[in-house]
TrEMBL record:
UniProt-listed NCBIfam families: PRK03911.1 (NF003033)
Name listed for the protein in its UniProt record: Heat-inducible transcription repressor HrcA
Species classification: Bacteria, Pseudomonadati, Campylobacterota, Epsilonproteobacteria, Campylobacterales
Keyword flag Calcium: no
Entry-linked InterPro entries: HrcA, WH-like_DNA-bd_sf, WH_DNA-bd_sf
Signal peptide (UniProt feature, chain positions): none
Alphabetized Gene3D superfamilies for the sequence: Winged helix-like DNA-binding domain superfamily/Winged helix DNA-binding domain
Gene name for this UniProt entry: hrcA
Keywords tagged on the record: Repressor, Stress response, Transcription, Transcription regulation
Stretches assigned to coiled coil: none
This protein's record includes keyword Transcription: yes
């Protein structure tokens, strides 16, 4: 695909995402004109024929305009959403952007809590004192020795160390007490739940198991219903690194969304 052809398809998809409406040759010409790009409607129509034959765009049933195909949108987002560097995210901006762009977002973060002391209760229970909150575990001598070495550490660090040595009861208790789930744009999940067979997926998203089970990157129909895009990326909240899952229709402006939540363009 030539440079000009790639560029024009890119501009076509951007125009579609911005207007959420089929794009005709004249409307694309006018959109490009605002960017000081001069190209005739006839030239655009010729490219439309090539894009159609290659499966990148198709005719809209409701108008004479064209819309990008699912394949074209997936290729577009693969090229645009690299997100290799953790984003510094503002939660207020994230809430507003999720609503305005129609994209669900979920963030998990650990509350601040430091293990201050460990108490052996009659050889039956271990009481972990985090100050304002206490965690209770069944007594185990090896576990007690392990936990006593963790005094002074933050709960997030303790959870990671617990998983590394298969102390799952400790890791689960930390998650139960201190792992906070933040949801934005929940109405989008309502649309997803209406898709056939997506009820189980809906629960996985809300419970956080999908976020913790996915690899970082873009996810399409192997994970989500056809026509949806999920993006798992690393973010920073006030300097603390965590992960964020975003889900929306392929036709939603993810590029604008990520620019809005960090105040910078991608």
């Amino acid at each position: 695909m030539g440079v000009k052809k790639e560029w024009l398809l890119d501009a076509f998809i951007k125009t579609y995402l911005y207007n959420h409406a089929p794009v005709g040759s004249e409307s694309l010409r006018l959109a490009l004109q605002t960017q000081a790009v001069q190209i005739s409607s006839a030239t655009i129509r010729n490219y439309f024929k090539r894009f159609t034959s290659e499966g990148a765009i198709c005719q809209s049933h409701s108008s004479s305009g064209r819309i990008p195909t699912t394949k074209a949108l997936k290729d577009y987002w693969r090229s645009k959403l690299t997100l290799s560097t953790p984003l510094e995210v503002d939660l207020d901006k994230l809430q507003r952007a999720s609503e305005s762009y129609g994209i669900f977002s979920m963030v998990e973060r650990y509350q601040k809590a430091t293990l201050q002391a460990v108490y052996n209760h009659a050889g039956q229970f271990l009481i972990l004192d985090f100050g304002n909150t206490q965690a209770l575990l069944a007594y185990n001598k090896k576990l007690e020795g392990f936990i006593r070495d963790l005094i002074g550490l933050e709960c997030k660090t303790i959870q990671q160390l617990a998983l590394s040595v298969c102390a799952t009861s400790l890791a689960k208790q930390i998650d139960h007490l201190y792992l906070e789930k933040l949801y934005f744009g929940l109405c989008v999940l309502g649309q997803l739940a209406q898709s056939r067979g997506a009820q189980g997926l809906f629960r996985q998203i809300l419970e956080g198991s999908l976020l913790r089970g996915l690899k970082q990157g873009l996810h399409f129909e192997k994970v989500l219903p056809l026509g949806f895009l999920g993006v798992l990326c690393s973010i920073k909240l006030k300097g603390e690194q965590t992960r964020m899952l975003c889900v929306g229709g392929l036709e939603q402006d993810f590029e604008g969304f990520y620019g809005a939540i960090r105040g910078l363009s991608i």
